[in-house]
TrEMBL record:
Signal peptide: none annotated. GO terms for cellular component: plasma membrane. It is a multi-pass membrane protein. This is Carbohydrate ABC transporter permease.
Length: 281
């Protein structure tokens, strides 16, 4: 009887916890749901009060109006190009640098790592003037290189992966070294597979930050055809912000699709990585 009472108590608390989490999830998802619903409303209902969460009329032409007003596909491709290249560069540089800091012994290693960490404390706006001068002298103004090259190093990614790689048992490397594996092969076939959960986190953060990047494109990109999607959305706001908020939110909704899909993909990969990278006893 006592065991049954304990089980009922645990079930009651789990039910309360589930209800609380559902309420929190609703408050998080409600703005996104409202945004999608508003993107399907007629223009005259964009500022309707009180706001409703479900459109009375589905106006799919709002999405067509986005493509008719701005070169949305070109902006989308530019953002995808910059985000993928920056993400690959940041993952590669973070993983290799983290492995060096976590596993190699060389003079000045700790001081250099502290220098990398200090970059986390410097706001991007502080370095934007010397960066602007450097980009102009290199002739990279109005090119995507100005958005890619300065962001190839990710100090937070180096810190995160270094902390994770420091926890990997050294016996795995020693066993691989006994089998004749080189340092590069150990990194590629031992360290990287085990570190995939943390690498996935770095990839998600890098892709989202690059996809939402607005300040750098605003400074370095001048040509209409080379603009990224966040900058292009502001142009769409200039076209429709005063009269058709639904079309503007349609463009914002489409801009969120790659980020959501990438996050869902990496979330699944995180779970797979924790099992594949598990150390068998």
């Amino acid at each position: 009887m006592e065991t049954a009472g304990v089980k009922r108590t645990i079930g009651f608390y789990q039910l309360i916890l589930t209800a609380v989490l559902l309420v929190i999830a609703w408050f998080i998802m409600a703005p996104f749901f409202w945004m999608f619903a508003t993107s399907l409303r007629p223009a005259m209902d964009s500022f309707k009060l009180p706001p409703s969460l479900w459109p009375s009329v589905f106006e799919w032409d709002n999405y067509a109006a986005v493509f008719a007003s701005i070169p949305f596909a070109a902006f989308f491709w530019n953002s995808m190009k910059v985000s993928v290249l920056v993400g690959l560069a940041q993952v590669a540089s973070s993983a290799t640098a983290a492995y060096a800091f976590a596993r190699l012994r060389f003079p000045g290693r700790d001081a250099l790592f502290i220098l990398v960490l200090s970059a986390l404390m410097i706001p991007h706006q502080v370095t934007i003037i010397p960066l602007f001068i450097m980009i102009r002298k290199l002739g990279w103004m109005d090119t995507h290189a100005a958005l890619i090259v300065p962001h190839m190093i990710y100090p937070f990614g180096i810190f995160l992966l270094k902390q994770f790689m420091s926890t990997i048992p050294t016996e795995l490397e020693e066993a691989a070294r006994v089998d004749g594996a080189s340092r590069y092969r150990i990194f590629r076939e031992v360290i990287v597979p085990i570190s995939m959960p943390s690498i996935s986190v770095v990839a998600v953060f890098s892709f989202i930050a690059s996809w939402n990047m607005f300040f750098s494109p605003l400074l370095f990109i001048n040509t209409y055809e080379k603009m990224t999607l966040p900058l292009g959305i502001t142009i769409l706001q200039g076209y429709m912000g005063n009269g058709n908020m639904s079309a503007l939110l349609a463009g914002v909704t489409m801009s969120l699709v790659p980020v959501v899909l990438f996050y869902i993909f990496c979330q699944k990969y995180l779970v797979d990585g924790t099992t594949v990278g598990a150390v068998k006893g």
